[in-house]
Amino acid sequence: MHRENTIANLDDFAAVCVCFHEHLISYLFADLLEARGVPTKILRHLEESPLIEKVITEPQYVSALSETQRRQCLVVGTAESLTPFVELGTHLLSRPLSEEKIDLALNQLFRE
């Protein structure tokens, strides 16, 4: 069963920064968000990200984020690679990915 999820008050959000080593993954997440009406900004390095924006990335880039950004971040990776981030208040999305897991993770990220 497919549920269409919408995020309330999209105008309250700045662009979501997306940064993955494989740029195709960045574009896939950006397309998914933009289809939901969420503006995105694809980055090659997280140092380019303003401090207050939400971020979707992978484990190797989290160290470049401030503490505030880590709480507004969705980290995508294998269950094992996400273990160090459980205590940081970071949103996590473990592979293998499914539509339901992605929807749940995005909804949690935007509830903050």
Keywords, separated by commas or semicolons:
Rossmann fold; globular; single chain; 31% helix; 4 helices; 5-stranded parallel beta sheet
Can you give me a brief rundown of this structure?
This protein has helices spanning 23-35, 67-71, 79-82, 99-111, and strands spanning 16-19, 40-42, 55-57, 73-78, 91-95. By secondary structure, the chain is α/β, with parallel strands linked by helices.
> Radius of gyration in whole Å, from Cα?
13 Å
Order the strands across the largest sheet as they lie in space: 2-1-3-4-5
CATH class label: Alpha Beta
- Indicate the proportion of strand residues: 15-25%
The sequence of SSEs as H and E is EHEEHEHEH
First-to-last CA distance: 27 Å
Structural class: alpha/beta
Helix content: 25-40%
Tell me the domain tally. 1
Looking at the structure, the CATH topology is Rossmann fold
Can you summarize the main beta sheet?
Answer: 5 strands, parallel
CATH superfamily: Response regulator
Helix count from the secondary structure assignment:
4
CATH architect. name: 3-Layer(aba) Sandwich
> Mean pLDDT, as a whole number?
85
In terms of per-residue confidence, which ranges show pLDDT below 50 for 5 or more consecutive residues? 1-11
* Strand segment count: 5
| Shape annotation | globular
